[in-house]
Specification:
Order of helices and strands: HEE
Number of helices: 1
Length: 51
């Protein structure tokens, strides 16, 4: 999902799942208490880059 040059700067890649309501699967933010309060039903992908 990046150019070869940018890929060399990647230090970590994670999926932010705390905005999803999935009890017994992973922890959610305290304000996520049901499907109606979840931010999305998809986790956000993010990367830490050393640029």
């Amino acid at each position: 999902m990046s150019s070869p040059g940018l890929f060399e700067a990647v230090r970590a890649v994670e999926v932010e799942r705390r905005g999803i309501w999935a009890p017994h699967t992973f922890d959610s933010f305290p304000t996520v208490t049901s499907r109606t309060t979840q931010a999305s039903d998809h986790g956000a992908l993010y990367a830490d880059l050393d640029v």
